[in-house]
Every structure is written in structure tokens, then in C-alpha cells.
Amino acid sequence: TSPTLIMSRFWSPVVHNLTPYVPGEQPKLTNLIKLNTNENPYGPSPKVQAAMQAEIADTLRLYPDPNADKLKAAIATYHGVSPAEVFVGNGSDEVLAHAFQALLKHDAPLLFPDITYSFYPVYCGLYGIDYRTVALSDTLEISTDDYRQDCGAIIFPNPNAPTGRLLARDAIETLLNEHPNQVVVVDEAYIDFGGDSAIPLVSRYPNLLVVQTLSKSRSLAGLRVGFAIGHPALIEALERVKNSFNSYPLDRLAIAGAAASFEDEAYFRQTCQAVINSRETLVGELTHLGFEVLPSAANFVFARHPLRDAATLAAALRERAIIVRHFRQPRIEQFLRISIGTDAECGALVKALEELLSA
Ligand code: PMP
């Protein structure tokens, strides 16, 4: 039987109509300089590995705690909230998926920026959520004024992806005040690289849900842990969806390793600062090469060269074993998104660009 026939006969219409999310490349080659998916070059705290090894010793036979209480307690203590205000999931992608189902599906459309994390429209397609995009400003910033319209809910990353631009906490507070009857989800995947988190607003705004990940600033992309902080009643909605989907989203190793990462503040601060310092150096060097670089509060920069085609540059870098991200999307197709690597990796990138630009 042909695959086409199987698809047309057995696939649900939702799958037929779904434009799937295209993840950044995870190459099998190991000798590449990988600056394409915003991983942290420094690796997690040594305490994470120690905690996971202790966990391996004799508990893998047993199911994990379905509520991941230990991790929730660690996150709650770290962020100064109560465990009832914390939800954890298998990467922030899963946390977001549950938020889309539990909190963002309403009769009126969900609003998010036209240039943003490309998973959002995919979740809308999957869960049948009506949405409307709001154009970024000329400077590729989120302008909260443009969100003054009827809507069912709002979601955006802060800093935004893939632009790296930060929205000030005051502007988020204005948005929350203007939409008291709508949930506002702030996806803070990159907040630890120079932004102010909206978490302190949670106690005053029951319509705010803040989502974070351990994949970037805590260098645990491989462990798949994300969390949300919000009013206990918002968290309860997420728990309900989660329990109807997979009662054990986090395995024992993830719970142990993730909890331990919150116990090494010195390592966390030091590695975040190292990434920020390398970013500032890279911004200077790219600017020197003639790139226009957007101000970034993330562990990546978004840059374009006025005289060079971005797709061509990305392909030429790839030939030199350096991979960066390029999006074929209106308004940003001349940009490259470059993750911040070690200084040596950033140096190799700058050298390669220098050669390509002088050719
Ligand atoms: N939100 C944004 C804005 C992201 O860029 C990413 C990373 N692709 C995620 C969420 C998901 O991260 P993770 O699932 O690794 O927590």
C-alpha cells in the first residue's frame, strides 16, 4: 500500500493541515562549531552530574514522583514563590504545549508577534486555537500598544526569539493591567542573559504565567526540563492537562539533576556572565565587519550584513564547519541568528566571516 493512500485514509484532518515545527539541525558530525540552537557552551554545574549519579545508584527501578515535588520546591525556593505556584515539564516546549491547551484556547484569537518562536503557530494548529499575529515594530521590537485589541490571550518570548530584543518589565506590567481578563504568557527561555524576569509580578497579577527553561542558562538542554510560575489556579489548569497526557513527564534523573542545578548559584552566575561577556565581544567584532546587530539580551545575536545575502553566508559558513541559523521568513530573511559559543568558537566564526567578506 502506498504511503499516500495510508495518509489520506488514516491521518486525522488536524495532522493533514499541520505545518510541522522544523527544529534546528542537530548534526551527527561532532567536529562542527555549533552555533545554531542556542545551547550553552559551558555545560551544567558539576553538582548536577553528582546528583544524577547518586540517583542512578539504586532508584531507577521505581517510578519517579509524578509531582516532582523536590524540583518544584527547589524552583519555588530559588524564585521566592510557593510550590503551588510552580509547574514543571519535559522542556519548556512541553510546558508551553500544556499552556496552549489549558490557558490559551478561547473564543477570541490568541495574539503573538509575527516574528517569534515558530512553535507557537504549530501548537495553535495542533490544538485548534484561533490566533492573530501582531507585527513587530520597524526596529523589530514588541510594541505593547499594538496589543490593545480584542483577544483571548497573549503569548510572547522575552527576550523575543529569534531577535533577542528585550521588552522592559514596566511594559509587561502595562500589558497585564490592560488585559485583566486575559492570560499573558511570558516565555522567558533567554531571560537570564541580561533581562529582568517577570516572576516578581506573579504575586500581583493572577493573569500572568511565566515560563522558563533549564536548557539555556543552566545548560541542560539534553535533560529536557522547563517550568512555569503563576497563580496556583493557573498552575492547576496545567496540572490537569498534564495528568491527562502523561503522569510522569519528568524522569528521576531529570528531577535530581534539575533540582541540583538550583543549588549552585555561583556556577550559574559565572557561566551566564561569561556568555554575556562573549556576546558583547562578538557584537563589537560583527559590527566592525559591517554587520548590523540587534541589541541582544539573549545567548545569541541576530545580525545582517547590508551587502551580503544571509542564506549564502550561512551556507559558506557551513562549508567551513560552522553552523548558524537562518530563517526563510519575510522581514528577517537577511538575518543570521548566531548562538554565543566559547570565545574560541566565536573567534573562529569571526575569522571565517572576515575571510568570506573579503573574498
Ligand atoms: N521558548 C523559546 C523562545 C525557545 O527559543 C525555546 C528553544 N527552542 C524554547 C522555548 C524551548 O526550550 P526547551 O524545550 O528546551 O525548554
From TrEMBL:
Q: State if Repeat is listed as a keyword.
A: no
Q: Which SUPFAM superfamilies match?
A: PLP-dependent transferases (SSF53383)
**Which reaction does this enzyme catalyse, per its entry?**
L-histidinol phosphate + 2-oxoglutarate = 3-(imidazol-4-yl)-2-oxopropyl phosphate + L-glutamate
The biological pathway it contributes to is: Amino-acid biosynthesis; L-histidine biosynthesis; L-histidine from 5-phospho-alpha-D-ribose 1-diphosphate: step 7/9
All copies of domain Aminotransferase class I/classII large, residue ranges: 31-353
Q: N6-(pyridoxal phosphate)lysine is carried by which residues?
A: K216
Q: Does the keyword Transferase apply?
A: yes
**EC id:** 2.6.1.9
Organism of derivation: Crenobacter oryzisoli
Q: What is this protein called?
A: Histidinol-phosphate aminotransferase
The GO terms this record gives for MF are: histidinol-phosphate transaminase activity
TM spans (from-to): none
Q: Which family does it belong to?
A: Belongs to the class-II pyridoxal-phosphate-dependent aminotransferase family. Histidinol-phosphate aminotransferase subfamily.
The record's subunit annotation is: Homodimer.
Per its UniProt record, what InterPro entries does this chain match? Aminotrans_II_pyridoxalP_BS, Aminotransferase_I/II_large, HisP_aminotrans, PyrdxlP-dep_Trfase, PyrdxlP-dep_Trfase_major, PyrdxlP-dep_Trfase_small
